[in-house]
Write a structure and sequence with these properties.
By secondary structure, the chain is of the alpha/beta class. The chain has two domains: about 140 residues, NAD(P)-binding Rossmann-like Domain (Rossmann fold, 3-Layer(aba) Sandwich); about 160 residues, L-2-Hydroxyisocaproate Dehydrogenase, Chain A, domain 2, CATH 3.90.110.10. The chain is built from ten helices and 16 strands. The strands form five sheets. It has a six-stranded parallel beta sheet with strand order 3-2-1-4-5-6, with helices on both faces. Strand 8 and strand 9 form a beta hairpin. The longest helix is centred in the N-terminal third of the chain and has 18 residues. The chain is globular. The two termini are about 30 Å apart. About 45% of the residues are buried.
């Protein structure tokens, strides 16, 4: 495998923005773009290539599935976009059918890469990718709740008047309406949220339920205003890619296959995991209080109810 080569399948707004973000990071020497609309992939590759004198030497081009044979990382963003008033789960049947076409073409040419699933509903499609590809579960990663967690940190930072990078908290479960915030272990640089709020005279009043709702509904709010979300997810995916390519062993709430963790089995959900060059190296069972465990179980039941309706 060529660790300097990455493929992006799907050149819509999300795929193209991820491609742009990756050209800024000096991670790859070769980036191949694949789309059902080959002309669209060509246009995106041309546009990105014209900016390479401002970045670093690399080859960006439109290709086909035969070009992925030596890719170490394959990012899938293909699928129908989420529309206003549509949940991520509403898109499931259309996108599962698309994945039934994509995954066999990947495995025809490459069985050794790490697959990073970004398309929605990401937890369902990550599960489908594992089942359809036959890849070891650790080498199939969904973007999970990495973006949701960033949104939580952003809103907490705004509320507490502190750098969002100093906020340590997770959104876990479905990347969707049943996700949950893990408040029981959330802190600001080791200081409990309630204690930090008491120390901060300039902080606004904290409503954990309001912050959670803002995070959960963020995508709907953005889609209503501009039609799609793509900058935030591109930055989240870039963070995951950095951990894989640089073997950082970072803890990120990616969507991965759960077997025994949190008392759950045979499902993909976003939970904190150690991510490195081998993919998901370890799923972490972080402490949850009773309410959080109950909400995580409800989130999983929601996903399993959808999986039960699929022919995979």
């Amino acid at each position: 495998m060529n660790k300097q080569k990455c493929a992006i399948i799907g050149c819509g707004a999300v795929g193209a923005t991820i491609a742009f973000a990756l050209t800024q990071k000096s991670l790859f020497s070769e980036l191949v773009l694949i789309d059902a609309n080959h002309a669209k992939a060509e246009g995106e590759a041309m546009d990105l290539s014209h900016g390479l004198p401002f970045a670093h030497p690399m080859k960006v081009y439109a290709g086909d599935y035969s070009d992925i044979s030596d890719c170490s990382l394959i990012i899938i963003t293909a699928g129908t976009a989420q529309r206003p008033n549509e949940t991520r789960l509403d898109m499931v049947h259309k996108n599962v059918e698309i994945f039934k076409s994509i995954i066999p073409q990947i495995t025809q040419y490459n069985k050794e890469a790490i697959i990073l699933v970004v398309s929605n509903p990401v937890d369902i499609l990550t599960y489908c990718t594992i089942k359809l590809s036959g890849f070891p579960p650790e080498r199939v990663i969904g973007s999970g709740t990495v973006l949701d967690t960033a949104r939580l940190k952003y809103h907490m930072g705004q509320t507490l008047c502190v750098d969002s990078r100093s906020v340590h908290a997770f959104i876990i479960g479905e990347h969707g309406d049943s996700e949950l915030a893990v408040w029981s272990s959330a802190n600001v640089s080791g200081i409990d949220l309630e204690d930090f709020h008491g120390l901060c005279a300039s902080c606004r009043d904290v409503s954990f339920s309001d912050i959670y709702k803002d995070v959960r509904d963020s995508a709907y709010e953005v889609i209503e205003r501009k039609g799609a979300t793509y900058y935030g997810i591109a930055m989240a995916v870039t963070r995951i890619v950095l951990s894989i390519i640089r073997d950082e062993h970072s803890v990120l709430p990616v969507s991965g296959y759960i077997s025994g963790h949190y008392g759950l089995d045979d499902v993909c959900i976003g939970v904190p995991s150690i991510v490195g060059s081998a993919g998901i190296e370890k799923v972490l069972d972080i402490p949850l209080d009773n309410e959080e465990r109950e909400n995580l179980l409800k989130s999983v039941q929601t996903l399993k109810g959808v999986i039960a309706q699929l022919d995979i």
